[in-house]
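Sync notes, pocket subgroup
Present: LS, DG
LS reminded everyone that the earlier model was apo-only. Rerun requested with fe (ii) ion included. Inputs:
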Amino acid sequence: MPGDNAKKALIDSMNGLLADYFTLYLKTKNYHWHVAGPQFRELHLLFDEQAAELFALTDVIAERVRKNGGDTLTGIGAIAGKASIKDDDRSKVDAMEMVKALRDDNVALVKAIRAVKEAASEAGDNATEGMADDWTDQAEQRVWFLTQTLA
Ligand SMILES: [Fe+2]
């Protein structure tokens, strides 16, 4: 039987992942709101689609934490304390710099999802382990779109 330590590690890594989703959601929205240049419309719309995907998973991840018996994030301060993805508080950022930053952040997210999947496996949480594959596919799709936009 998986021990309490494995469960605790899973809850911790899921709360870290949740903080990353919220952070990347808001960063993507920041870019959606402030992007400028010849590709404005395309990037404005792409960033909005990606932000919606990120936001849609926040509730799912938080509730997986609760179903595992843990407390989840409670507010902006808790998000800031747990996130490993960095905010970008600037409003004037070159459009391709935005695309590159989001690409790198989504690559980091794929790694964080993998860590959650491993922790879920250790803790015997099959549901999270299975769902993580869909989260990875979504994140890799975002990486693909952003990478192709840079090429
Ligand atoms: Fe909008």
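DG: The helical segments are 4-34, 40-67, 76-82, 95-123, 126-150.
LS: The domain at 4-150 is CATH 1.20.1260.10 (Ferritin).
Action: DG to write up.
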